[in-house]
Write a structure and sequence with these properties.
The protein has helices at about 40-50, 90-100, 110-115, 130-145, 160-175, 190-195, 215-220, 230-240, 260-270, 285-295, 295-300; strands spanning about 5-15, 15-25, 30-35, 55-60, 75-80, 150-155, 180-185, 200-205, 205-210, 225-230, 245-250, 255, 275-280. It has a 6-stranded mixed beta sheet, with helices on both faces. It has 3 domains: about 1-75 and about 150-210 and about 295-308, P-loop containing nucleotide triphosphate hydrolases (Rossmann fold, 3-Layer(aba) Sandwich), CATH 3.40.50.300; about 90-140, no CATH class; about 220-280, 2-Layer Sandwich (Alpha-Beta Plaits), CATH 3.30.70. With about 300 residues, the chain is of the alpha/beta class.
Length: about 300
């Protein structure tokens, strides 16, 4: 199995520090969501892993080797950083065929990934004539071309229609279930929450979190219960006696922070307060992320240390 390993990675652009001593491993067999405010260092880190930027110090390897030393690299790492990177005058088929030839891959592989990404009908269309969503699919097809053990995708759902987003989600999970390493950088919290089972968060080029999704949500969100009753005053008093505070949410329901539905239900039952509804409020990745990073400016780089 192949992992992405980053050790004490530093990247400076003159006086600007984009990555500041970053150490982490992106492991196989799971989808890792790569999160952070604009300027946190995510794109710079991915570019260094792919050999597009050189680190000031530290290392970034794939399967124990720098990307530049990989023979036929598309067979080791599939990446989507910019869907507009394809030459606009080439056809979709021609773009993938050039990549296949450069990595000594059979021509049939081009047809396979075009079909897999729903591009067979536009294979002869020039890239400049493709919609944003189609170009995004083409970028994903290029990432899959070498059947690599590692996938690195930056904002892969950009421009995709709902069907394409669902396909991407299933694709990422399927690849991870095969034991591949899948890293997805995105600002769409709902998609990361629906796809990833591990989260890495950067801020100012430093590691803020590296944990399973469930653990991350528990550590950075408050437990919360939503309920509804016919006896509001009694409910508030019962909860107050139990050290809890019920807050109306405006639609006849109440919200209680810092507890679970089972505990609230027991308190209500003990005092014979009828409950028409009672449920734990699902934790949100967006809420957990914002609680960790705070105002965006807090974890983005300042004039002396701004990074991508």
């Amino acid at each position: 199995m192949t992992s992405i390993d980053i050790h004490e990675l530093v990247k400076n652009y003159g006086r600007t520090r984009a990555v500041a001593g970053l150490t982490l491993s992106i492991r196989p067999g799971r989808v890792t969501g790569f999160l952070g405010p604009n300027g946190a260092g995510k794109s710079t880190t991915m570019r260094i892993v792919l050999g597009l930027d050189r680190p000031t110090s530290g290392t970034a390897t794939v399967g124990g080797r720098p990307y530049a030393r990989l023979d036929r690299p598309l067979r080791h790492v599939g990446a989507l950083l910019d869907a507009s990177a394809a030459h606009p005058a080439r056809t979709a088929h021609g773009h993938l065929l050039a990549l296949a030839h450069s990595n000594r891959m059979p021509r049939r592989r081009v047809t396979e990934v075009l079909e897999r990404m729903g591009l067979a009908s536009v294979a002869k269309r020039r890239v400049r004539a493709l919609s944003l969503g189609m170009r995004q699919r083409l970028g994903l097809a290029a990432a899959l071309l070498g059947d690599p053990p590692v996938l690195m995708l930056d904002e892969p759902s950009n421009g995709l229609d709902p069907e394409g987003i669902v396909q991407l989600r299933e694709l990422a999970r399927g690849l991870a279930s095969e034991g591949r390493t899948v890293l997805i950088s995105s600002h769409l919290m709902s998609e990361v929450a629906a796809t990833a089972d591990h989260v890495v968060v950067l801020g100012r080029g430093r590691l803020l979190a590296d944990s399973p999704m469930e653990t991350f949500l528990k550590e950075h969100t408050r437990r919360r219960v939503r309920l509804r009753t016919t006896e509001n005053d009694r409910l508030r008093q019962v909860l107050a006696d139990g050290g809890l505070r019920a807050v109306p949410d405006g639609d006849g329901r109440w919200t209680v922070d810092g507890t679970e539905a089972a505990h609230v239900g027991a308190l209500a039952a003990r005092s014979q307060v009828p409950l028409l509804e009672l449920a734990d409020d699902p934790t949100s990745l967006e809420e957990a992320y914002l609680r960790l990073t705070g105002p965006e400016s807090e974890f983005t780089a300042d004039a002396q240390s701004k990074g991508a």
